[in-house]
Every structure is written in C-alpha cells, then in structure tokens.
C-alpha cells in the first residue's frame, strides 16, 4: 500500500516523540512492504517563529493532501501572554477545524505492567479499559462571540459554548459505533443541570441511541464523572462528551494509564468513500517545555498514535496490533522513560523508540 503521511512535530517534546513515532512508522512500512511518502511541515510556535503564523497556509494544504497527519505537540512559554488567536495552540485548533476532524478518540487503558506507575490503588485501576470520544471542532473552543472588552474595572470576557443538533449527532454516532465493537456501553457526559447547551446534548444523544438498540446508554454529570473516573474507572466503556469536558477528563484519565505520556489519540471526521478516515493523529500530552530537548519524554503516546493511524486511516489492523503488542512488550521489559517511574534506570526517548522497533522485529 502507498501511505501518504504528513508530519508536524511542532514544539517542545513534540519534536522528540515524533522522531520516534516516525522511526516506528518507517520500520513498519519496511517490514510490511508499504511505500511511505512522508512530508513535514510547520505548526505552532515553530511556525510563528519561522512564518509569523501558527498555521501557515502550506501546512493546511499539505495536511489536506495527505492521507493522514501525525502531530507532535504545540505550545511554547514565549507566547504565554498572547491572546488565544496568536498563540501556538491556535494552529492546532485551526488545523482540526480545517480537516473537519470532529471526533477525537482517546483510548485509556490500564496496562498490567504499569499498575504501579499509577498513583491510584492497583485494585481500582486494574482492568480499566475505555475510550473517550471527545467532540473536537465545536463547543466553547470555537463559539462566538468571544473576546475581552473594556478597561480596568470595566473589563469583561466572553466565551460562547455552542452546539448544533448535527454537530452532536455525528459525534454521537461515532461513539455508538465504537461501542458496538466493544462492551456496548456509552456514557454521555454533560452538565445538563446547569447548561442549556448540555440539555441539547443529552436530548440529541438520547435520540441517536434509539438507532443503536444493542448499546446501553447512560448519562453522567461532568463533576460526578470526574469523580467516577478515579473511584470506579472500570464502569466506563465509551465515554462521549463535548470538547472542553473531554479535554479535561482525558488528562484525568491518563492517571489510570500511569502517565499522560501513554495516551495516543485519533482525530477523525466523516468516512471517505473508500471506507477510510482522513485523520489527524496526536498524542494527548502537550509540549512539556520543562523537559524538552532532554531525550527523556515518553514517546509511547506518539507511537500509539501511529498504531491508530494504521487502524483508522489505512485499515491495516495487523500492523496496528503489532505496534500495540510491541508497546506492551517494551512496558513489560521495564525499558521506560522516567514519567513511568521504572524500578531500574530510566530509558531515553530514543531507546524506547528503538525498543519498540526491535519488539516488532
Ligand atoms: C489537547 C490539548 C489541546 C486542546 C491544546 C494544545 C489546544 O490540550 O489536545 O488536549 O486543548 O485541545
Ligand atoms: Mn488537553
């Protein structure tokens, strides 16, 4: 198969983890005889520094031409005091919107060999296996009006949380279809005791559920959900929620996996006529400027995102499951980065990437 992949390492540790993800991508392409057409581009702070904008037009064009885009991370302390539309993060938000990837799939798994890496008690975490489906191109991240007006005591800031019925419907369908291939349970998370926006969310999700009678639907308020994630994580199969809630809950969920450096993600939109999904693949973690450039960042979230790319965009399940199995092998071997608190000496980013390739064979 011919795989057209566009890489956007971005900022901070994005550069190092993407390097290792691409090592694994090349390795898998060699082993299974796929022809890899790889291009690279600029996104985030590096794009602001070099091109004066977090999302250059060329980046959008190349991402649209590719089958799949692999993103590292965006964010840089240089821009901490900038307004949102001039920050590195605006590049990623613009790219998600431009690609129409409205469903962000964030699998959260407690790996047996990492139970001790989680600060939570083993008996609570053991066996947890869920996928968070986060709506990605709507809600308060994109709603207008927005902005800061006035001066001094008159200053006022506005953001708008907005969803339309079709925006909720399409992401809900992604969640129900995923649940059909899993334990057949969707938990929809909202704040419908306070927000009209959430009331519409709950109404539409409940309606869509009728098309999937084999899937059981329940609803949780987001504050309770935040608690249940650490009290009783095994109760979740597919967790469906809006953009901001999903951003927050997925960082919390990463504690179950032992480290945020473990969480891959796939951002997908509508299915193409071929059955594939044009996708944006991004580790859940950020650019972590404090540890950038030290070769200590965990590349497994980025490598897991390559596995997700094989699965969703290329429909190559064997390649995907081989990468996932290799990740498990490396975890069990104890050759892991410091975030996973290994009992022996920690491995470097590069060593982990090499170990995954070796485990694939
Ligand atoms: C994420 C990140 C992004 C988000 C930032 C970098 C804009 O936190 O992917 O979870 O908030 O969506
Ligand atoms: Mn986040």
Largest sheet: 10 strands, mixed
Determine the mean pLDDT: 97
Instruction: Give me the secondary-structure category.
Output: alpha/beta
Low-confidence stretches: none
Q: Secondary-structure element sequence?
A: EHEHHEHEHEEEHEHEHEHEEHHH
Number of strands: 12
CATH superfamily of the largest domain: Isopropylmalate Dehydrogenase
Distance between the termini: 20 Å
What percentage of amino acids are in beta strands?
A: 15-25%
Report the CATH architecture of the largest domain.
Answer: 3-Layer(aba) Sandwich
- Give me the CATH fold name of the largest domain: Isopropylmalate Dehydrogenase
Net shape? globular
With helices defined by DSSP (H or I, 4 residues minimum), what is the helix count?
12
**Helix share, percent:** 40-55%
Question: How many domains make up the coordinates?
Answer: 2
Radius of gyration: 20 Å
- Spatial strand arrangement across the major sheet: 2-1-3-12-11-4-5-10-8-9
Top CATH class of the largest domain: Alpha Beta
Distinct compounds present: 3-isopropylmalic acid, manganese (II) ion
Brief rundown of the structure:
This protein has 361 residues and is an alpha/beta fold. Helix content is 41%, strand content 19%. It is globular.
Secondary-structure topology with pairs:
Layout: E1 2-10, H1 14-31, E2 35-40, H2 45-51, H3 57-65, E3 68-73, H4 88-99, E4 103-109, H5 122-125, E5 129-135, E6 147-149, E7 156-158, H6 165-180, E8 185-190, H7 196-209, E9 216-221, H8 222-231, E10 238-241, H9 243-257, E11 266-271, E12 277-281, H10 300-312, H11 317-333, H12 349-360
Parallel strand pairs: 1-2, 1-3, 3-12, 5-10, 8-9, 8-10
Antiparallel strand pairs: 4-5, 4-11, 6-7, 11-12
Helix pairs in contact: 1-10, 1-12, 6-7, 8-9, 10-11, 11-12
Residues 74-75, 89, 92-93, 247, 284, 286 line the site of 3-isopropylmalic acid (IPM).
């Amino acid at each position: 198969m011919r795989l057209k992949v566009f890489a956007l390492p971005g900022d901070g540790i994005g550069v190092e983890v993407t390097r290792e993800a691409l090592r694994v991508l090349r390795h898998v392409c060699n082993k299974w005889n796929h022809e890899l057409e790889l291009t690279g581009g600029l996104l985030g702070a590096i794009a602001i520094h070099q091109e004066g904008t977090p999302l250059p037009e060329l980046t959008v064009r190349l991402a649209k031409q590719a089958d799949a885009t692999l993103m590292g991370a965006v964010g840089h302390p240089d821009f901490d005091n900038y307004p949102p539309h001039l920050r590195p993060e605006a590049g990623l938000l613009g790219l998600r919107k431009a690609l129409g990837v409205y469903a962000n799939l964030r699998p959260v798994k407690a790996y047996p060999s990492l139970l001790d890496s989680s600060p939570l008690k083993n008996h609570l975490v053991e066996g947890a296996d869920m996928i968070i489906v986060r709506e990605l191109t709507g809600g308060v991240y994109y709603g207008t009006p927005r902005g800061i007006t006035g001066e001094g005591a008159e200053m006022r800031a506005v953001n708008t949380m907005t969803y339309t019925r079709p925006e909720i419907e399409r992401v809900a369908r992604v969640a129900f279809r995923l649940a059909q291939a899993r334990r057949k349970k969707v938990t929809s998370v909202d704040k419908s005791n306070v927000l009209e926006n959430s009331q519409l969310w709950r109404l539409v999700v409940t309606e869509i559920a009728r098309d999937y009678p084999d899937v059981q639907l329940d609803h949780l308020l987001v504050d309770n959900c935040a608690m249940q994630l650490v009290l009783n994580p095994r109760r979740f199969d597919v967790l469906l929620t809006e953009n901001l809630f999903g951003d927050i809950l997925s960082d919390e969920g990463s504690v179950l996996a032992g480290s945020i450096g473990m969480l891959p993600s796939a951002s997908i939109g509508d299915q193409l006529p071929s059955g594939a999904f044009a996708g944006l693949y991004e580790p859940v973690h950020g650019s972590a400027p404090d540890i950038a450039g030290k070769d200590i960042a965990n590349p497994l979230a980025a490598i897991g995102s390559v596995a997700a790319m094989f699965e969703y965009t290329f429909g190559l399940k064997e390649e995907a499951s081989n990468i996932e199995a290799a990740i498990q092998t490396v975890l069990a071997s104890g050759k892991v980065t410091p975030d996973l608190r290994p009992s022996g000496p920690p491995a470097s980013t590069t060593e982990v990437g090499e170990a995954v390739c070796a485990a694939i064979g």
